[in-house]
Amino acid sequence: MKTLIKGALVLTMEKEEAFCGDILIDRDRIADIQPCLDAEADEVIDARGMAAMPGLINAHQHAPMSLLRGFCDDLKLMDWLDKKMLPAEARMTPEDVYWGAKLAMAEMIRSGTTAFADMYIHMNEIASAVEEVGMRASLTRGLVFLQPDGGRRMDEAMDLVRRWSGKAGGRITTMLGPHSPYTVPPEPFREIILLAEQEKLAIHTHLAESKEEGIKIREKHGRTPTEYLHQLGLFDRVHVILAHSTNLSRRDVGLLKGMRGGACHNPVSNLKLGCGIAPILDMAEQGVTVGLGTDGAGSAATLDMFEEIRAAAWLQKLDYGDPARLPAAEALRMATAGSAQLLDIGRDVGTLKAGKKADLILVDLRKPHLQPVHQIHSLLAYCANGADVDTTIVDGKMLMRGRRLLTIDEEELLREVSARAKRIVEGI
Ligand SMILES: CSC[C@H]1O[C@@H](n2cnc3c(O)ncnc32)[C@H](O)[C@@H]1O
Ligand SMILES: [Zn+2]
Questions:
Q1: Residue 206 annotated as part of some ligand binding site
Q2: Whether this model's pTM surpasses 0.90
Q3: 169 falls in which pLDDT band (50, 70, 90)?
Q4: Sheet strand arrangement including 136-143
Q5: Ion ligand 2 neighbours, Cβ < 5 Å
């Protein structure tokens, strides 16, 4: 099956400049990208007036938390988590998680996200939903060791790895997910790192999200959360996604130097929960890869990565009092190539190049808020929204065309989620 996209304004994210051109997709891969391609194809997409760019990659989230969107906002992180999220999650059935994940994927595809890294519970159901819907995902069973059933959770984590790594035509990969420095004591954390090393798995965790976390970890371990994980050997032994990484000192940033993987910046969640501004430019200066993610819709409110791109750029400009900080093209790079490296799939996705997987989106520029087209990077980073995405393609397969979802029955989805969401939060 060959698809030819004709006449798009192409941002490959490999080179600085965009150009008007054509993209040929052969099955799951990009076959060619040129200013003008005269190729045979089964389907031709007229993309004049649209920008073609790599699909956005959400490097940290909890998809089924979309069922908890708007249920309890404006709380402090620890109260929000302990008093509201954990009790609600304890009531979620595997079927709830399946439908919550589908709800999140409908929103992601609609707003131009093609791949995501997820940490949650009932991961078999999330994996089945990913396989069915056609997205790309790195899945992780979240490991919290506050209750005595940590062993069961470890079994579930390895069950996910064995059943799903490389499945769905290679679209699903897996990692291990110790939740955070404050929910995993040193011994199990060390064991997880060792297991990851032995099984050649990456680790996905939360780090230094709030000031309270810093206080808790200092009281318990006499160090910052970053020093604590560094002492456990996390940064020199395995590939890691560090979600948030908000409250890091200069010394903490230095400890990340040379790490594999990097930090996932979650600016909207950090803003909304009042957690602080992550020092992402200091990290980048130390050679640490920075990607972008939304976190779950329970904290971030939406899964629109265009909002994260914009918030990331604006926060750095505000923090430094300098509009030149984190320019538009750099913020877009974080949400594409940067996040791809965090998911450890940068060889295949994150930029548009012949030979890479065909994960890309078309953004319709024929709208008042996206005209005129002086600087396409500026338009996409500062003016575009998820709702401007016209077409979403993953692994060469169309998941949305002309804003119609092709692998999800939206009416059925909306019917399913409203009753489930109500039941889960009742009385909490
Ligand atoms: C055990 S699965 C993952 C676990 O993480 C919780 N979670 C969601 N958002 C955040 C956040 O911003 N900080 C810390 N933990 C978070 C989620 O509710 C699940 O219980
Ligand atoms: Zn999170």
A1: yes
A2: yes
A3: very high
A4: 56-61, 113-120, 136-143, 172-178, 202-207, 239-244, 260-265, 289-292
A5: 295
